[in-house]
Amino acid sequence: MVFPEASQDDISIARTFVKPDYFITFTCNCKWLKIKSSLFSNEKLTDRPDIWVRVFNINLEALIEDLWKNKVLGTTREFICMKEDQKRDLPHCYILFTMAYEDKPREPSHVDKVVSDEIPGNFTNPKLYDIITRYNIHGPCGPINTCSPCMKSSDENNGIKSYEKNFPKAFHR
Questions:
Q1: Which stretches make up the Helitron helicase-like domain (predicted)?
Q2: Where in the sequence is the domain holding 154, given as residue range(s)?
Q3: pLDDT per residue over 97-149, tens digit each?
Q4: Which is it for strands 91-99 and 22-27: parallel, antiparallel or unpaired?
């Protein structure tokens, strides 16, 4: 596994050798059960970066093992993995995969087998449904749901909750 110091290394390697077939992002989730269960009742996530970094690395290794050794997407010729920290200090990773010739996606139908924008069925795959609806879908928010994470109270609005990032914003040319 290669962990380059900067993203320019990834670009240079891809330019020199072969363009990658898959670009995967992987982000630490502070609500992972392994992280939450490792904290004492009086601890906050920010008190224990050692826990979330360790859990992130374990999950990242499992993902790479699935893709590299278990060949979930097919035979992988090479991959590059670059870790970085997000603004809220949680680790994040970019992975570029180059597939063996026989497993390269060539048709839209090949991509459609890997990439999906459908919400899984609640009854057919309840665990995946819960994950997608909890972490990957924003909303509803606004007056409909003032408990949404993007809503905040401010003294300017007399304690009335409004959008944290001042959305929706007017269109500018």
A1: 7-96
A2: 146-173
A3: 889 999 999 888 888 888 877 888 889 999 888 888 777 776 677 777 777 76
A4: antiparallel
